[in-house]
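dude i think i finally got it to work??
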Amino acid sequence: MKNIGFLGAGSMTEAMIEGMISRQFVTPDRIVIMNRTNAHRLAELEEKYGVRTLQNAEMLLRHSNVLVLAMKPIDAAQALESIQPFLTDQHVIISVLAGITTSYIEGSIQTKTPIVRVMPNTSAAIGYSATAIARGEYATDEHLSFTQKLFETIGTVVQVREEKLNAITGLSGSGPAYFYYMVECMEKAAILNGIDQKTARQLIIQTITGAAKMLNETNFEASHLRERVTSPGGTTQAGLTILEKYKYEEAITACITEAGKRSEELGKHLERQNHF
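look at this
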């Protein structure tokens, strides 16, 4: 049985802990957490989930053979420096740090510790994350399989090559925000057209949920489902014509591409700062 340590105690850490415990992937006594400054947050998680908390990197590594890096990316260099003396190739590192490559982590820790890089999203909080995972140089199929099973406790998982992860960050890592923004816009449009906010919200959420289920359960392409809704000269066609006029497809493509580029830029900036 693996003991799992978390370096960082934010919302992603809590989502993973809740998923692992509720799905009986691991028992609370096999989870240890450390963060840099917030003792109150550690006490909160300890009381809520029955996990153990520490404020010492050496003890964290002694009590875990899987270490999840879940701090803010800006704190990565300092965090890696603090754990480096205590890491061995018997540990496994799982990194959820956006934009930070496995080669950067390997260069920082100077060991052959296996690393798996992961890009979940915030829907992990309710068990519906869309997560992509990729192996580092020393990670084996076994390490990848373990990581997949862990993240399946908070949603669905796909395995990809690491060079795809920045683009996936732009697609599904940041993706929930695009849909939330769309809902904001639809609510405002509904209100402008005389529909109260509460009614609009209920209708919009059910519309999104239904569309997602249609995509998932029918296995039809999105274009096919769109065409089934769209009658020539009808109401849907009128709406889609406006989206085409305002270059909706180009905007979505640029949005995802730019977010992916930003992920790559942030990672390279950190590497330049720390000479890796």
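The chain has a mean pLDDT of 93.
im so relieved honestly
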